[in-house]
Amino acid sequence: MSGGLSGRAAIAGIGATEFSKESGRSELRLAAEAVLAALDDAGLSPADVDGLVTFTQDANQEIAVAREIGAGDLSFFSRVEYGGGAACGTVAHAAMAVATGMARTVVCYRAFNERSGRRFGRPDAGLGGQPTSQGLEMSWHVPYGLATPAAWVAMFARRYLHVHGASSEDFGRVAVAMRRHAATNPAAWFHGRPITLEEHQASRWIAEPLRLLDCCQESDGAVALVVTSAERARDLRRSPALITAAAQGSAAGQMMMTSYYRDDLTGLPEMGVVGRRLWEASGLSPGDVQTAILYDHFTPFVLVQLEELGFCGRGEAPDLVRDGGIELGGRLPVNPHGGQLGEAYIHGMNGIAEAVRQIRGTSANQVGGVANVLVTAGTGVPTSGLVLSAG
Amino acid sequence: MTAGEPREGGLPGERELRELAAKQAALGEIRGTPAADPVNAPMIRHWLDAMGDENPVYLDEGLAPPAMAQVWTMPGVRRRAGDPSPVDDVLAALDAGGYTGVVATNCRQTYHRYARVGERLTPATRFTSLAGPKRTALGEGYFATWDVTWYAETGEAVAEMMFRVLKFRPPRNQEQPQTVEPYPLRPAVSPDTAFFWEGVRRGELRVQSCGDCGELRHPPGPMCPRCRSGNRSYAVASGEGVVHSYVVHHHPPVPGLRPPFAVALVELPEGVRIVGGVVDCPPGDVTVGMPVRVTFRRMDDELTLPLWKPKERR
């Protein structure tokens, strides 16, 4: 149970490659570079690593990464399913391994050339091709041309607009906030390049009601996170980010990106599962987090997450984001690094690294007095979340 | 180069075709080669047999059935060279101009008297008109018309025929009308979903129903999530629905489809939802709450998809 996990493990090191559109090197090399950087950040060596966790979608097996970094024996390795929904789940698995003694030093990683290699934003005609459970799910959608993440999300977004009387500008304010944050983050792809709401409104349609600037980037890069016991983390080089709560969640009628057959399309019930478990395990409430890292592959789901996690009521997120509510200095600064819309799309792992920086007090866009940060993973899919705390 | 001059090494244009047609019509009636054989009983017998004509008068009286008029002077598979006709030059020019398709559109015969066994008939052809170019369902083309008259050795006209063909330019996309490009977005099918696609092929929108508790479910699966029965059946939906939500896809390109296109999540009165493309409607006209009706579209030789069109207003 998450309650039993609370405070027992911590993120002791973070590492990343540069974020680019063409890394010019292999995904395995990116993975190894990020893992080594995270170990260095923690003040640990590859010989300390006895566990590795990554996404099911990652092309770099744990054993391959272990070979490249020169690690020895592994006693724990695990994969987490469901695309970007895996991000916080990798840390949850690592924390469980550490808390139960399966491993002492577990590195979570995600590495891909998602822009210069296979781009997730491109339709894959083969998605519905195999009679696996996922292939069959896709077969109710892909044959009609509903074949890209933007299009899958657009179906929810249209319903949200219809039910709550919201507008494309409400989505646009999320994009404007993320780009404003990225503009002052030197590691962000869109560093120095903020946008206005007018520019958002003038950007072309991708899948109505989503415009180009409602969609996150596609990026090359890697991020790694070192998880170890809280006790040990306190003795390492950097201030620990305690894992106060970690949760995974899926809900009734769950599908990958196309849970269109539930009564209500305006929520993300799987994120509701994660949120309830995080608040319960941490003993915290939305008012206790100073900043939130919300998965932002597409702007509409940032609004829905604000509602689903209890930061505002149903249909009230457009009001929350109006007048800079999620910007630095606002009521709830969201994604101070610029999120995946502004910094890079590393499947949510770069957001966890930002949460650690906020806890340490070392972010380029540091929020004042951060004690707790909430982090979420991929939306529209079975997902996961974390509450990280100073200590 | 000015209009009307023959184009150097080029194809005959509209004006050239008109001039040729006028020249050929001015030639008047051109007598052809007499029939290879005189009117004869064996050929009449075969004809009557093939046609199922049991009237004894022809063989009893030595008369040819009037509809055999063309038979006596048909050129055969290996046409003899030098058979003069004012039509051939026109047809050849149309071929050269790209009007290579041909379909007979009119044939009207007039019989003056019976041809008798032993008579040798001679055809005479008069080119009468060339009309076009005209847009037709087959493609752009010209209608060429000519008359043929069959004369007995006495000089009497036995029969006449007006014959008209359409010579058309085959549209490029119909050059191989038998081959349909396979639609690239194909569903996977399992034993749990085959009934749905089988229904679609038969023009039925099938919704899985539980064989025990009757619960309707879409998308279908192997179990009933309500009562856990594996006993499955299906109901055929009315085909009506209402748009619950929709997407208009613009970018990036999706194989097999031309953006922008609309895809809707349709709520059926039966109580389930289904996703499908919206057709017969500009994508920008789709709205939440729009009444729609299913339509089954063949995407290629193997795949039919259930799509949705606006419901007709009464």
Overview of this protein structure:
The complex is a heterodimer of chains A (391) and B (314). With 391 residues, chain A is an alpha/beta fold. Chain A folds into two domains: 2-117 and 220-390, Peroxisomal Thiolase, Chain A, domain 1 (3-Layer(aba) Sandwich); 119-147, no CATH class. In chain A, 35% of the residues lie in helices and 17% in strands. In chain A, strands 3-2-4-7-1-8-11-10-9 form a nine-stranded mixed β-sheet. By secondary structure, chain B is of the alpha+beta class. Chain B folds into two domains: 14-171, Hotdog Thioesterase (Thiol Ester Dehydrase, Chain A), CATH 3.10.129; 194-310, OB fold (Dihydrolipoamide Acetyltransferase, E2P), CATH 2.40.50.840. Chain B is built from five helices and 13 strands. Chain B has helices at 14-26, 41-51, 57-61, 88-96, 194-201, and strands at 29-31, 101-111, 122-136, 139-151, 157-168, 206-210, 216-217, 232-236, 240-249, 261-267, 273-278, 291-298, 304-310. Chain B has a five-stranded antiparallel β-sheet with strand order 1-3-4-5-2. In chain B, strands 11-10-9-12-13 form a five-stranded antiparallel β-sheet. The two termini of chain B are 60 Å apart. The chains are: A alpha/beta (391), B alpha+beta (314). Strand 5 of chain A pairs antiparallel with strand 9 (240-249) of chain B, so a sheet runs across the interface.
Main β-sheet description of chain B: 5 strands, antiparallel
Strand order of the largest sheet of chain B: 1-3-4-5-2
Number of beta-strand segments of chain B: 13
Q: What is the count of distinct domains of chain A?
A: 2
Helix-strand topology string of chain A: HEHEHEHEHHHHEEEHEHEHHHHEE
Number of helices of chain B: 5
- In CATH, the architecture of the largest domain in chain A is 3-Layer(aba) Sandwich
Overall CATH architecture of the largest domain in chain B:
Roll
What ranges of chain A have pLDDT less than 50 throughout 5 or more consecutive residues?
none
Gross geometry of chain A: globular
Please give the oligomerization state of what you see: heterodimer
Counting helices, strands and paired strands, the structural category of chain A is alpha/beta
Number of strands of chain A: 11
The CATH class of the largest domain in chain A is: Alpha Beta
* CATH classification, class level of the largest domain in chain B: Alpha Beta
Mean pLDDT of chain B: 89
**Globular, elongated, flat, extended or rod-shaped: what is the shape of chain B?**
elongated
InterPro entries (chain A): Thiolase, Thiolase-like, Thiolase_C_2
Domain Thiolase C-terminal (chain A): 261-381
Protein name (chain A): Acetyl-CoA acetyltransferase
GO molecular function, one term (chain A): acyltransferase activity, transferring groups other than amino-acyl groups
